[in-house]
Amino acid sequence: MILTLHEISQHFFFTGNVEEIHPVGEGLINDTFLVKTSGNTPNYILQRKNRHIFTNVPAMMNNIHKVTSHLKKKVAENGGNPDREALTVIPARDGKLYYRDKEGEFWAACLFIEDTVSYDAARDPELARQGGKGIGHFQRLLVDMPGTLEDTLPGFHDMRFRFQQWDEALARDPAGRKNMVKKEIEWIEERREEMLTFKNKFETGEIPTRVTHNDTKISNILFNRDGEILCVIDLDTVLSSSCLNDYGDAIRSYANTGLEDDKDLYRVTLDTGIFEAYTRGYLSEAIDFLTPPERENLAFSARYITFEQVLRFLMDYIEGDTYYKIKYTEHNLTRARAQYKLLHSMEERYEDTRDIVERVTREQELIQTR
Length: 370
Hints:
13 helices; two-stranded antiparallel sheet; Aminoglycoside 3'-phosphotransferase, Chain: A, domain 2; alpha+beta; Phosphorylase Kinase, domain 1; 2 domains; about 45% helix
């Protein structure tokens, strides 16, 4: 028997009586619900975690708890409000950080942060600057987090691993679609060597490993009513990784003039104004802990992560759409083509973006010395 959402909610330490539960958002991976309680008691977020993608939910929740505990400590030390400036994980009644139902589904909960604003896109440079500041601040607070995080997503942002998956997908061609995307396959192969050369910088330690978010779209940042950053949310993907992955993924998301799955490719290009605004916000927080190789590779990281997303969307299409949720048959192919258009625009504007990073870096270094 499948439990109702109300029955699921009873397995968590929620204060007050649950009055209603309704879905929120359109996440590609998890199912998310807002739990409203009676009177002046807190409301909560309840999520069914995708156990096919997050294959070790207990470890994932341990990572989230470790990160949020450290963030709360740092926020308190800085005189902030830990309940509003960091997520609060709500444990299940058995003491675990999750509940597993009779169907084998994993559920997790956190405190709902009231009176906040979120955005689906950063079309305004000031909003992009604030978003960059939010991710830079998030990384800075975690620079001194003790211990390590468990690798709950093996191969995530690992280009060598992605190419292994890619080669296997092409060899199997399970959905019989490979011959339909010959041109798109060429996009990937033409850039293989360049991307693996960049990956080598991580493997040799030239670019260090840090605690990172790994899904830095602006919808994962909550703002207050005055437009100030409150909290970074959706921490399922927190890992020990390169901070360049966070920066590159944010640029991919923020600075795209079109949609991630835009059918009209004429609308898709890199907005260098948004790129500069995000970079300015990010470096205002991150300049003091980034190493020279990290700074020097910021602009390329946007190409790296965008390429990875082209590969992943195209690979999922070839494999028969087994990873990402789709709304129509060729949705993943549409996504791959739109992301490739963005990648091509990044390549055309690469020297401009390098110049922007260098200029903003110099400005922030001057500010730091005052």
